[in-house]
Write a structure and sequence with these properties.
By secondary structure, the protein is α+β, with helices and mostly antiparallel strands. It has 23 helices and eleven strands. The strands form three sheets. Strands 6, 7, 8, 9 and 10 form a five-stranded antiparallel β-sheet that branches. β8 (463-464) and β9 form a beta hairpin. α13 runs parallel beside α18 (551-576) and α20 (629-656) runs antiparallel to α21. It is elongated and about 90 Å long.
Length: 736
Amino acid sequence: MATFLYKIGRLAFRRRHFVALMWVALLTLAGVGAASAPTPGTTSFSIPGTEAQKAFDLLEERFPGMSADGATARVVFKAPPGEKMTGAGNKATVEETVRELSDGSEVAAVADPYAAKAVSRDGTIAYAQVTYKVSGMELADSSREALEEAAQAARDAGLTVEVGGDALQTTPETGSTEIIGIGIAAVVLVITFGSLLAAGLPLLTAVIGVGIGVATITALASTLDLGSTTSTLATMIGLAVGIDYALFIVSRYRAELAEGREREEAAGRAVGTAGSAVVFAGLTVVIALVGLAVVNIPMLTKMGVAAAGTVAVAVLIALTMIPALLGYAGRKVRPAGEKSKLLGGGRAAAPRGQGRPNMGTRWASFVVRRPVAVLLLGVLGLGAAAVPAASLELGLPDDGSQPTSTTQRRAYDLLSEGFGPGFNGPLMVVVDAKSSEDAKAAFGDVADEIKGLRNVVTVTPPAPNKAGDTATITVIPDSKPSSATTEELVHSIRETGADVKADTDAEVLVTGATAMNIDVSQKLNDALVPYLILVVGLAFLLLIVVFRSILVPLKAALGFLLSVMAALGAVVAVFQWGWFAGLMGVEETGPVMSMMPIFMVGVVFGLAMDYEVFLVTRMREAYVHGEKPSQAVVTGFRHGARVVTAAAVIMMAVFAGFIGSSEAMVKMIGFGLATAVLFDAFVVRMAIVPAVLALLGKKAWWLPKWLDRVLPDVDVEGEGLRTKTDHDEDRGLVHA
């Protein structure tokens, strides 16, 4: 591996014009594809294998004109104080609004509040249900404008009018904090390298890599049904790993220059050694992201595969474009320890072995002397941070989680006020009586059974289709959509349906947004353990090959579990409990998104292994070259701690930049990943890992002899390069 990558690094350095032209051409091609691609719609949110999805598919088949997948809007009206919505003037205003809403070309139907009996008991609140022919993200701006204009006209007439539903769904904005995150990354790179040019290389290559990845996603979005969140995730992860991978190779290049090597040789060795670590680190991230496919939620699979593709591009760019750009930079990129005239007066590096030990050396020496104390402090600290995770409540966001400043949230609150909290999460029961001898009787039996259940406020009469073999029944719970009581009701209806099927051969299915959320949460929970086994198992095998050790990969996996649990605890504390919510821009607390745990497990595991590979390969390299285990730990930190610290700070800054997003999911993911990197890089990898290695000593690098013979020798440490170089030098001396 090291020898092969060494040749690639030297080739890219020499043929830099071709390499640079190739990547610019790919970026241009992807950009043209993105510019000419049709506007993408929303990602189809299907959950194969769930009852809610089965019912949804049945509705599509048996009620073809129902527009079951179309956008909906609820225009909620509230009468002025002292008046009723049934008053002549208010009624006329509402009817005029309904007529205006019905004129849209994308409108499938508008339910008149008075005909549909959608007026509260006290007569102060009413709502009109608008159903569209297309989904929320496919809805034309003109339709949204017509909806808002109709609502404004009713407001001008004296009514309080708010609009809820997914018809107002728009593409999320990430906010200016994303740019701030990149700015922080630039500052960290300048401090790390002491050179503006050297700092600019990782930023330039990361931006090119993300540009290619996101442009490709945009070009394929319509064809592959990719949503806006897919490109946001790819940008988030692509920027972070792209900067980090380039950072490690540039840092190793400067270290090789400090050893006195020529620039082309230094570029080759940097790619051969640090590049090997980049390849395996990238593989762990790709495995973790692609592994999301085991959950069998198409949206999550597409997000993972798209982000994995962007990571793969970042790896390829780091291995080829970085040495090419180093060739262009020439002597402007200085050896490690030297600073540019602008930043450090052009002073030279101290001779090797002289000068004050750096911070990494001092910290590692302290940990090696006090391993038990450091280990206990790190484990107990992460354990304390993980405590809130025990109170984790999962759900999917609805209008009730929106800020109170939005019209969607105000419409949600008005509906709760007028019709009860469960009105915002109606359950749709689908009765398939095609196999029943008496379909009408079966419909009635289901409705009667549901009326007898606890926590049921309203059960509408069965509404059969034209064929008379299928009917829908709307059930209004007495509790809000995200409550445990509503979840219990869904399970109770399904249990009742099993009894009805035994008696009448009619199948009872529960669907709707609330039931879909419940099924998603259950599916994600069921998939978590298989996903962990798959991803951690594959990465464990990969790390055994890299480190040629059993205990080092095991320690890496256990450390990851600590950091991800602590990060989930922080997510619960902020987004569910409300700690520091204002500081994070979280206006409304509530359940953590259902996909957050499994998503964090996947992404954080990949990123955690990045730092493990980058830091521990340096230790392994020192140990293989004859140093004692404790000294190898110190050597690894002397060479790698500064760069790993910079990489972690950069990754945290990039992820934290997405906390400013208007999308709740993106905001939560950005915070969770930034926190996880903080815990994993600075507590697990910088404290727990060296403490454990110091305690294990030589046992850390133990590998059964039979396994040592079976495993391929990937030579991440660059031993093959050392042998080759020594041989070349000896041959040169003979010829001299």
